[in-house]
Design a protein that fits this description.
By secondary structure, the protein is of the alpha+beta class. The protein contains 19 helices and 30 strands. The strands form nine sheets. It has a six-stranded mixed β-sheet with strand order 4-3-2-1-5-6, with helices on both faces.
Length: 587
């Protein structure tokens, strides 16, 4: 058993708790968190972005989803922590596991700021069967993690209205109108990307996510909007501009006392807000609904759309140059997964107003491609050879938008099986790109388009097909998603940006994924919705076996490649342009 787990158990005995839950979360239900909140990684050694650790006095288990099964098996090996594969019938839910493991009248401990209110309610209901009590006041990280990184408070920066399209004051006014429609006195905003979007501000408190830590209370009347954050992260100029728009900054932890003092009707999403946050509002009447900001943020305005198109042009140039370099250099240079990631970063840095990566790059050669969210390090860093395939999943933040692209590159000889898989994934990708559907349709309804070519051959993939992408925000955002397993997913609407990323993963052999970002648009002729591609990078023709493409799919592929050449060729040198012409030639 890991020594970190044993140290935790000593603390548990001292605190008189039988079990502890350690999620992958901060106080805002963020998918990606700053280093201060990576207690689960510190204790378990598992570095994936999603997982929940449960430690009892005599056992330990970690729940994660199918993207991380192979990675978790490797990283948890020898730790004494049992892997719980979410989504499999044999895997119990956390609350059922605890009910079985914990004795009657024992105590479950956790930091109430890191679990959602709804999850704690489910825990309480299930564990009441054995009279198990909950203790939500202890931050176990402070007790076991000696060199824990402090809370981040890096400088906040402002985006101009010319980039955002809508002023901060106008966004606040629109939110107040939503409050009045619900007869709510106040909206609590705890999602970091919603706060950043509303205020036209960005930060650097989380790696790969341009966000800053904070909470916000927006009132339906003319009261001051309260922002709870570390004031040292804001320049005097930004503080002055916020004040002019009726926004005052309070201490980060003052949100809890402010909610305790609030009396009135409070709009708060209990499923996405931490337990302590909701529990503090004991004198309020609660409206439990998703924040209106989530949908407002997901539907990009015309200015944001123009900016995103510009960002994707720059990104398309960078990734296309990387593709050209890779397919040539692999024949004569020593290239590794890590050096390839550095190279694509080098090409991106040539783009105007490039800010950094939008997530940790995935460069997965050969069998590593089957690990859906593989991350190379010095111990796993493979040499890329002139054979097989490289799965490259990367993205960038630019001042004018966020990108996320996966291309699978063929580096030499591949098998017939690999070529068929490559083409079937591409067929599904093209099906979704070419989809047309009426308003009101959800992503769960169109997911079939991306999977059907694989299903014909008894193949499938375990992850979702598409996720929303923020405007210089999180690379994953809601409320829309494309997945056959989605529940209560929001309808796809014009202005939303969503990924299209089917894949095939054969453990120990290879992985293939093709991902582009799509903009949803309304057809002016019939009012139906359709997609247009934002991502502009060729698909590797060396992996395509056209026997597995229908005439319609072939037409979509050739149309896409024609668009890529049309948009990118004016931005490339003559040699690059000739290479791109061949890479996008009709099939």
């Amino acid at each position: 058993m890991k020594k970190e787990i044993e140290e935790l158990r000593k603390v548990m005995c001292r605190e008189k708790v039988y079990a502890v839950i350690v999620p992958t979360s901060d106080y805002h239900s963020s998918e990606y968190v700053s280093s201060h909140f990576k207690l689960r990684e510190y204790l378990s050694g598992f570095t994936g972005s999603a997982g929940t650790l449960v430690v009892t006095l005599d056992s330990a288990a970690l729940w994660t989803d199918s993207r991380y099964f192979l990675q978790a098996e490797r990283e948890l090996s020898g730790s004494g922590i049992e892997l719980m594969k979410m989504g499999e019938n044999s895997t119990p839910k956390i609350e059922k596991f605890l009910l079985e493991k914990m004795p009657e009248n024992s105590v479950l401990g956790f930091d109430g700021r890191t679990l959602s209110y709804e999850f704690v309610k489910r825990l309480s209901k299930t564990l009441s069967e054995k009279n198990i009590s909950l203790s939500a006041e202890t931050d176990f990280g402070e007790l076991v993690w000696e060199d824990r990184p402090p809370l981040s408070a890096k400088p906040v920066f402002e985006l101009s209205e010319g980039i955002c399209g809508v002023s901060r004051a106008e966004k606040l006014m629109q939110i107040r109108e939503k409050l009045k429609e619900e007869n709510a006195d106040c909206l609590v905003v705890s999602a970091l990307d919603e706060i950043a979007w509303t205020l036209n501000l960005r930060g650097n408190d989380i790696d790969f996510c341009p966000l800053f830590l904070g909470f916000m209370m927006i009132f339906s009347g003319d009261e001051t909007t309260k922002l709870f954050s570390d004031k040292t992260a804001f320049s005097n100029e930004i503080i002055g501009k916020l004040k002019a728009d009726g926004v005052e900054i309070y201490g980060y932890n003052d949100i809890y006392s402010a909610l305790s003092a609030f009396r009135g009707t409070l709009w708060i999403n209990e499923g996405a807000s931490n337990f302590r946050l909701v529990s503090s509002a004991k004198n309020a009447k609660i409206i439990n609904k998703p924040s209106p900001v989530e949908l407002m943020k997901a539907i990009k305005n015309p200015t944001e759309i123009l900016c995103e198109k510009n960002a994707h042009l720059k990104d398309g140039v960078a990734v296309t140059r990387f593709m050209k370099w890779l397919k040539t250099a692999v024949l004569s240079e020593k290239i590794t997964e890590l050096s390839a990631a550095e190279k694509i970063g080098y090409f991106r840095k040539q783009g105007e107003n490039y800010l950094g990566e939008s997530f940790a790059p995935i460069m997965a050669y050969g069998a590593h491609g089957a690990i859906v969210h593989y991350s190379a390090d010095e111990s796993t860093n493979a040499v890329i050879e002139p054979r097989g395939m490289l799965l490259s999943d990367t993205g960038g933040h630019y001042l004018d938008g966020t990108t996320d692209i996966t291309r699978t590159f063929v580096l030499g000889e591949i098998t017939e099986e690999e070529k068929r898989a490559f083409t079937l994934v591409l067929a599904g990708h093209l099906n979704l790109l070419g989809a047309k559907f009426p308003e009101g349709i959800r992503g769960s309804c169109i997911d079939y388009a991306a999977r059907e070519p694989q299903w014909q051959y008894g193949l499938d993939f375990g992850h979702g097909t598409g996720h929303g992408v923020g405007f210089l925000l999180n690379v994953h955002e809601g409320p829309q998603r494309i997945s056959c397993r989605a529940q209560n997913d929001a309808p796809i609407k014009a202005g939303m940006i969503t990924s299209d990323e089917p894949g095939i993963y054969i453990a120990g052999k290879y992985g293939i994924r093709h991902e582009s970002l799509l903009l949803c648009e309304k057809d002016e002729n019939d009012g139906f919705l359709r997609f247009s591609p934002l991502t502009l990078v060729p698909f590797d023709r060396d992996g395509i076996d056209k026997r597995y493409l229908t005439p319609r799919q072939l037409e979509l592929l050739n149309d896409y490649h024609r668009l890529v050449f049309e948009k990118l060729s004016p931005l490339l040198g003559e040699e690059e342009k000739k290479w791109l012409e061949k890479a996008t030639a009709p099939i």
